[in-house]
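Example 3.2
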Amino acid sequence: MKALVTGASSGIGYEISKYLSNMGYDIIAVGRNKKALEELKKDTRTNVQIICLDLSINDNCFKLYEDIKDENIDVLVNNAGFGMYGNFDTLDIKKELEMINVNIVACDILTKLFLKDMKKNNRGYILNVASIAGFMPGPLMSSYYASKSYVVKLTQAIKKELKKSNSNVNISALCPGPVNTNFNKVAGVNFSVKPLSSSYVAKYAIDKLFAKKLIIIPGIIIKLARFFSKFIPDSIISEVVYHIQTKKDDNK
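Structure, written as tokens:
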């Protein structure tokens, strides 16, 4: 059994790699931090193949697939991604486009390419790591929230296509709230509520993936927030999110 995990050098991706390894999966770990990936290799019980690659470059996504397409990937985890904080018009556009390429384009490319192979074999699992942010507008993190909305909606649509074609392939979207990872350092914020541990989220996500749950939301507080948000207009949610985001800025 073999799993491909992007963004495996830290946080959720690192812990998912460890958890899958404990289940007996060999891991192909993709990330930009070679030292961290080497630590992951020491920290796992099965074989780990390290691939240092920048997935914000589209050609690298195709290269990754071509290099490992004969490995018969059983599980694909599209975890690579990051966020940016600030008013939309003030964000560095080059960095923002890099984020969009990682959060959206890389996820889209890798999902499409590996899904084709999985459908031919009529087996396999894909976990796209989104966020609870994908269900709401996100002032002060507008592009990040929008990118995660893309991942959620893409996953939901593919799930329906797979069901209509009677495929045994499963796809799920992980939509956590705050998680104790390197995310807030990259985004330039501190969470205003206590984050879940990345190890808990990783275990919860993989267990629910194998149970074929479509939308995976760890933590009762975030589950409740998602439930009640269905009955609240986006204009009010946007105001609440703006308030939360400004508190993040105050906590820096």
